[in-house]
Model the fold of this input.
Amino acid sequence: MNVNLHKLRKNLRSRKYVLIVMRHAKAEALGEGGDRTRKITDKGRKQAKAVAKGLDALELVPDRIATSSADRTVETLNRMLKYFGDGPKVDVRLSLYQGGIQSILDEIHTTKPKRRTLMILGHEPTVSVSCEWLATSESDPTQLDLLHLGLSPASVAIFACDRPFGEWTMHGADLVAVLTPRDFEV
Done:
């Protein structure tokens, strides 16, 4: 998506709070176990690895991660934690599976100020719609357009703001980048 990762890392260093909103990695088709028990595919495992390594290279290992309790999101996270280590505080939430936009906003607003980098791992269309609500009108129009299309599996939207998460408002954070796993394969 033509984002210069070096410039992105430099830009984010000057920001106090960073939010990473991610859609789970590629999942298998709906089977007998129902939607909640879907697992990620081999491609999904590779996507999760690429994103984790890329975020680590950008120095964006989260302090806190809130993830949906669906199998595919937990499995995506577990693959990523191999690269993030034991640093992030992890919260698994049923609300991020079934709660909609408000559940994402709740996770943002309840994050303590000492947490500087927050990741929320969820599902479409909730993740992209939430991102549209968070982005300021001054955000890069090209990046905003990518949100309108929805986040593809394992894609991330990265926001930055100088106010603590508890003070974030609708249309109050800068959308800095929308990245796919391929963007990290440099």
Summary: Residues 2 and 183 are 8 Å apart (CA to CA). The chain has a mean pLDDT of 94. The chain is about 40% helix and 20% strand. The helical segments are 5-13, 42-57, 71-84, 95-98, 101-109, 126-134, 141-149.
